[in-house]
From TrEMBL:
UniProt cross-references to CDD domains, sorted A to Z: SDR_c (cd05233)
Family of this protein: Belongs to the short-chain dehydrogenases/reductases (SDR) family.
Enzyme Commission number(s) of this protein: 1.-.-.-
InterPro entries xrefs: NAD(P)-bd_dom_sf, Sc_DH/Rdtase_CS, SDR, SDR_fam
Provenance organism: Rhodoferax potami
MF term (GO), any: oxidoreductase activity
Record flagged with keyword Transcription: no
Transmembrane stretches, start-end: none
The name this protein goes by in its record: SDR family oxidoreductase
Length: 259
């Protein structure tokens, strides 16, 4: 039987689904009729997002940087909703520092969460997708995965790594019914951005309005991207209509980055 986008039986796992872009993605996929497992380190935050959807959303605690924790999360997710058919690697952290002040710990943390976390989850998800000859992997990257920015070298290196992983896996799994894509948001209205604005205010003495305007100024549309706009791109990539899309890195950035 050919399933359609509206199939209620599809199981999506969204990392970092308790807040920001990941929460918007989880809500968009539930609205599209999928059953969604959301994963993150703060269980109470995840449970609050899942609570309104007792039959459609399930919260599982895990640290994506830890392979054993990811393996346990997939066991729990599968026990609840069956094999994961859609994986959205969204969990991420963005810490800024001048390169000269980027110590090994910050470097390792950026790689561990943003890049190795994506590796762990994708390895856990692919065998079931290959067995079913259908699967979707969508990596939430950043425009920092496509171009360089000052003061975020470790984050940028990790996100460029995720784009490379995306492109390699797209080639390796092209004939197995699995697509692998990246979605690359520009500055988006979430806690990560709010923290960055607070950081600029603390370091430069700018007002919130000035700092916010600075972040918006890089976007040709002169505004901050909304999480729902990123989520809608992810939802589309997860559907049958996007079967021919693989190995792509799609910027959702008001035209800031064109590739
Ligand atoms: P956010 O609200 O801080 O979301 C990040 C999520 O990742 C949180 O729910 C967090 O939950 C989870 N997370 C962090 N470390 C984790 C770990 N080790 N294991 C499991 N979960 C972890 O920020 P966001 O802006 O929505 O970020 C989502 C993604 O978008 C990230 O990959 C980020 O790099 C990317 N992005 C954001 C922007 C932007 O301007 N906001 C722009 C481009 C790309 P816990 O703390 O509970 O673990």
């Amino acid at each position: 039987m050919t399933r359609t986008d509206a199939s209620p039986s599809r199981h999506a796992l969204v990392t970092g689904g308790g807040s920001g872009i990941g929460e918007a993605i989880a809500l968009a996929l539930v609205a599209a009729g999928m059953r969604v497992t959301i994963v993150g380190r703060r269980l109470e935050v995840l449970q609050a997002v899942a609570a309104p959807y007792p039959d459609g959303m399930h919260a599982v605690q895990a640290d994506v940087a830890d392979a054993a924790s990811v393996a346990a999360a997939f066991v729990a997710a599968k026990a609840r909703f069956g094999p994961v058919e859609v994986l959205v690697n969204n969990a991420g952290q963005a810490h800024s520092a001048p390169f000269a002040k980027t110590d090994a710990a910050l470097w390792q943390q950026m790689l561990a969460v943003n890049l190795t976390g994506t590796f762990h989850c994708t390895q856990a998800a692919l065998p079931d997708m290959v067995a079913a000859r259908w699967g979707r992997v969508v990596n939430v990257v950043s425009t920092a995965g496509l171009v360089g920015y000052a003061y975020v070298a470790a984050y940028c290196a990790a996100k460029h790594g995720v784009v490379g992983l995306t492109r390699s896996l797209a080639m390796e799994y092209a004939k197995k019914g699995v697509t692998v894509n990246a979605v690359c948001p520009g500055y988006t209205e979430t806690d990560i951005l709010r923290d960055s604005i607070a950081n600029v205010m603390a370091k430069t003495g700018r007002t919130e309005e000035q700092a916010r305007a600075e972040f918006a100024s890089g976007n040709p549309q002169g505004r901050i991207v909304q999480p729902a706009e990123v989520a809608d791109t992810v939802r589309w990539l997860c559907g049958d209509g996007a079967s021919a899309m693989t190995g792509q890195a799609i910027a959702v950035s008001g035209g800031e980055v064109m590739h």
